[in-house]
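Dear H.,

Thanks for agreeing to be a second pair of eyes. The structure we're designing against is below in token form, covering all 138 positions.
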């Protein structure tokens, strides 16, 4: 399968679609998931085209994982979390819905289940959670 440069994450990278951006470096971008399964749920993506981990370069994968780790530490602090869940899906049969490599990173608390998928969060809640994460990164 080929990379579609009109996928929603590519549009976010180009600034064509708004997103609550949390962190970025030369190789990756982190932004709030608009349908979070937990408070603080973010997405980590490479800034360069990659459909998923099956066609990503080792450099793209390494950059993403380094950012996932950095963000995971910030999420632990920002949300007083006891753990982190990461998810990464590949191709439709593997659960992938947006065909740009991305990692879901969610702070977790013992005994608290993840919310069901598909519920949009209020923009002001996403903004407040993003501010907590940015503060924890400082």
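And this is the sequence the design step returned. I haven't edited it by hand at all.
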């Amino acid at each position: 399968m080929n990379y579609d440069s009109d996928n929603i994450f590519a549009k976010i990278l180009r600034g064509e679609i708004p997103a609550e951006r949390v962190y970025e470096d030369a190789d990756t971008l982190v932004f709030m998931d608009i349908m979070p399964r937990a408070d603080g749920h973010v997405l980590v993506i490479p800034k360069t085209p990659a459909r998923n981990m099956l066609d990503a370069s080792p450099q793209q994968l390494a950059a993403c994982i380094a950012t996932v780790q950095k963000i995971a530490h910030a999420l632990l602090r920002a949300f007083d979390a006891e753990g982190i869940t990461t998810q990464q899906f590949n191709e439709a049969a593997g659960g992938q819905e947006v065909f740009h490599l991305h990692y879901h990173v969610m702070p977790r608390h013992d005994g608290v289940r993840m919310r069901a998928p598909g519920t949009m969060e209020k923009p002001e809640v996403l903004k407040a959670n993003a501010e907590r994460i940015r503060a924890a990164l400082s």
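Two observations from my side: The helical segments are 8-13, 58-78, 123-137. The beta strands are 21-24, 28-32, 42-46, 83-87, 103-108.

Warmly,
E.
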